[in-house]
Design a protein that fits this description.
Strand content: 5-15%
Strand order of the largest sheet: 2-3-4-5-6-7-8-9
Number of helices: 24
Number of domains: 2
CATH architecture of the largest domain: Alpha-Beta Barrel
Oligomer: single chain
Helix content: 40-55%
CATH class of the largest domain: Alpha Beta
CATH topology of the largest domain: TIM Barrel
Number of strands: 10
Largest sheet: 8 strands, parallel
Structural class: alpha/beta
Distance between the termini: 27 Å
Length: about 500
């Protein structure tokens, strides 16, 4: 994604790169699509507790705070702190934070887990919009003099080389889908379809296996959009299609919003992709600002799942993967959002999405977790509510893992959060949610990778084994065995947080 905040909103945020480098974010991080909430008192407590644990156990291991937090023990300490403040949502003990051998044992046990990240991004080399850098430059001048000149002026952190490092070396991700985004102004495209295709080819050729799949972004209603579909099918067939029903996520003045159930506009496209055998569409829905009814008047409705009721029923052979799980984000006090859920059992738009199968009798609609899970992880009770809502309505077979990285740095913290997360018993009983189970149990294994492998027709018996032996696996092993600080997880995030006092 690009940076879509107004000048007024930019003045209220700062780059996440300059924030406390916790293994798990201690306040909401925005990918630029929404204005993040300020750090809450509870999140301040989490941050203070992480620092306390890092100083305590890092000293015993001869590590300073930042070094300790780059280790597996540091990751465990972050979840210990989360439990101390929010309650026991995560499967972790303080012994894991204290004992490197115990932490390493857990890492070793889970390193072969198949993880398919259904939403990742990087920007093209010649992307030069200053909006992507101006915030860092402002921060370096006014509030964070320690922010390096390189961090203020170098788009490297959003580009291909760092993407490979963060996705494939600094996380347990096995396979990633590379995505893009459309804009009414073509110069704003962060990664054109041709470059997505070339990146996929380069990564898989280098790895010697299928490590990356790619989208073709389609722009219904824009001039020549079906010609681009035809060209993609003829010259660079994608693994799936990417669509934004809102048209352009940068501006409410977009000229090209559309409905998925528009028979005249969309159904010829469905016929074409059905015939071609590329039947999966990844569709951005949700992530609207708190004042969406005013600021996106006349357009925000296209972000809701209402058009899925007819489209999914009319096209049962197609897969509708809804990015962000159609969650409208935390742009109010999380306590109030949780109170609404606890009293009504409803999460705006996400609950509507979860009811689609019951309403239509279909099983071809999926909730993807990108950004929504990352954003909700700062309040684990809401994470549990969101996962419970999706799974109850859509089924564990129709929720898929996605991180929306590299905007948030390495996705490893999100992977660990989901591995450790459990829906509390009171929530299970009150709302009829099933438990998530162990890190490598059936439910999480489905969501982490098996569901997407099915959607994308990956044969895990044939394709998975080479992933443990390919060039990327060798590089990762060498990277970790190096033992240098450069080879440790850097806990960097590349989004935006509310400006601190």
């Amino acid at each position: 994604m690009g940076i879509y905040l107004s000048d007024r909103e930019l003045a209220q945020v700062q780059p996440a790169e300059g924030a406390f480098r916790s293994p798990v974010p201690t306040q909401m991080i925005s990918n630029g699509e929404f204005n993040p909430l300020p750090q809450t008192p509870q999140q301040q407590q989490v941050e203070a507790r992480i620092k306390e644990l890092a100083d305590k156990y890092g000293a015993k291991q001869g590590l300073d705070r930042r070094q300790f937090l780059s280790t597996s023990c540091g990751m465990a300490a972050a979840f210990v702190a989360m439990n101390d403040v929010f309650g026991n949502f995560y499967d972790v003990s303080e012994a894991e934070a204290a004992d490197p051998a115990r932490a390493a044992e857990r890492v070793e046990a889970l390193k072969g887990q198949f993880i398919f990240d259904d939403q990742t991004h990087f920007i093209r080399d010649d992307f030069q919009y200053e909006e992507l850098l101006g915030l860092g430059q402002y921060a370096g001048q006014f509030w964070n003099p320690e922010l390096t000149q390189d961090e203020q002026t170098n788009l490297y952190y959003y580009k291909f080389e760092n993407y490979v490092r963060q996705i494939y070396l600094n996380s347990d991700t096995s396979v990633a889908v590379l995505s893009g985004a459309p804009f009414d102004d073509p110069s704003w495209w962060i990664l054109p379809n041709e470059q997505i295709h070339e990146a996929v080819k380069m990564v898989n050729t280098t790895a010697g296996s299928t490590r990356m799949l790619g989208h073709a972004v389609v722009t219904p209603g824009q001039p020549g959009w079906m010609d681009e579909v035809d060209q993609a099918l003829a010259e660079r067939p994608p693994a799936s299609w990417k669509l934004y029903t809102i048209g352009d996520p940068l501006t409410a003045k977009t000229k090209y919003p559309f409905w998925l159930d528009d028979e005249k506009l969309m159904y010829p496209f469905y016929e074409k992709i059905d015939k071609a055998g590329i039947r999966t569409m990844c569709i951005h829905k949700g992530l609207m600002p708190a004042d969406y009814e005013q600021s996106w008047a006349g357009v925000w409705q296209y972000q809701t799942p209402r058009d899925l009721l007819k489209a999914a029923k009319d096209w049962p052979q197609l897969n509708f993967v809804i990015y962000h799980g159609c969650l409208r984000p935390f742009l109010e006090d999380p306590t109030a959002v949780l109170e609404e859920f606890e009293s009504t059992g409803e999460i705006k738009w996400a609950s509507d999405l979860a009811r689609v199968p019951e309403s239509t009798g279909t099983n071809n609609v999926y909730a993807e977790m990108g950004t929504s899970f990352a954003m909700s992880s700062v309040n684990p009770r809401f994470s549990a509510a969101l996962l419970g809502t999706w799974i109850k309505g859509l089924g564990a077979s129709n929720v898929v893992w996605g991180s929306d990285s590299v905007w948030y740095g390495s996705p490893q913290w999100q992977i660990e959060a989901f591995r450790r997360l459990e829906i509390p018993e009171d929530m299970q009983k009150k709302h009829g949610f099933a438990p998530l189970g162990s890190a490598d149990g059936a439910v999480k294994a489905q969501i982490f990778g098996h569901n997407s492998a099915r959607v994308y027709n990956l044969d895990l018996s044939a394709d998975y084994r080479p992933l443990t032996e390919d060039k990327f696996a060798q590089l990762k092993q060498e990277y970790r065995q190096a033992g240098s600080l450069e080879a440790m997880r850097d806990n960097a995030a590349y989004g935006y947080i509310a400006r601190r006092a």
